[in-house]
Amino acid sequence: MKIDGGIWGGLDKAGRAAAQQEARGYDGIWVPETSHDPFLPLILAAEHTERIDLATGIVVAFARNPMTLAQVAWDLQAASQGRFILGLGSQIKPHITRRFSMPWSSPAARMREMILAIRAIWESWNQGTTLDFRGDFYSHTLMTPFFNPGPNPHGDARIFLAGVGELMTQVAGEVADGFLCHGFTTRQYLDEVTLPNLAKGRAKAGKAMDGFQLAGPMFVVTGRDDAEMAEAAKGVKGQIAFYGSTPAYRPVLELHGWGDLQEQLNRLSKEGRWAEMGDLIDDHMLATFAVVAPLDRVAGALKDRWGDVLDRLSFYAPYDTDRAQWDEVIADLKAA
Fold this sequence. Notes:
12 strands
């Protein structure tokens, strides 16, 4: 199992941060699309690293089109000498329509077509085939030599797709190279919902699960003493509550018999009572979503829960920690 980290924020420290992550033993760097563009830091990361994988985790696919995604992924794959992973996610309708002012419809079908269109564009560049992609949502039928970068010396970038729902998960299995588990997941949900639907998607494409990778930022509650553990638990409970308020993620709660909690959290979020939401997450719920263990035992607990199913793991820890703490966990995981 590979251990991944991440970099956030502006560009002024991106290159140095990436180099530090590589030196600390991480196997990959994921850059989210939050308040900054996720692609630009990875150009600097490519210049300052040699072996570490570089990925978007995630870039909002529906805020863009297949051609722009194909082009920037081509460039990052070349710049990183084959280390780039295009991590895509759909986001939810309000963000697509109201934040990005882009169309929203049939997200799973649209995502499937988007990835197929990206692959068709890459094929036209790499193989010299005529670009003739015609779908329900995207159409790409023009590629002249002036706009064709030619074959990528490092081949196509890997495409990972994030998802929670059954249809999007099946799409990932069918057309992607890997699946990005949402942090708001549980081992039971992964076993009973995610894995069977990935297998359905793979079967639709005539493929087995061999070579298909699962990655995920998984919640971790840890610390060196009771005070640090309590602070970590508070931060993770708040983040679980934030995700739980989203209707699209209700199936995860329903699987555990907590469906009504989603309505309570949603109501509080609409009333702006964010600070109260975490109080609705009890310790049993916390332990279901997060690995909860003292620092000297957290690596073993992560291995026990995720080691047999995830190919790549990153730490989802929405609370203040020091770097040395995670260095210890990385060392323990790699030694296990």
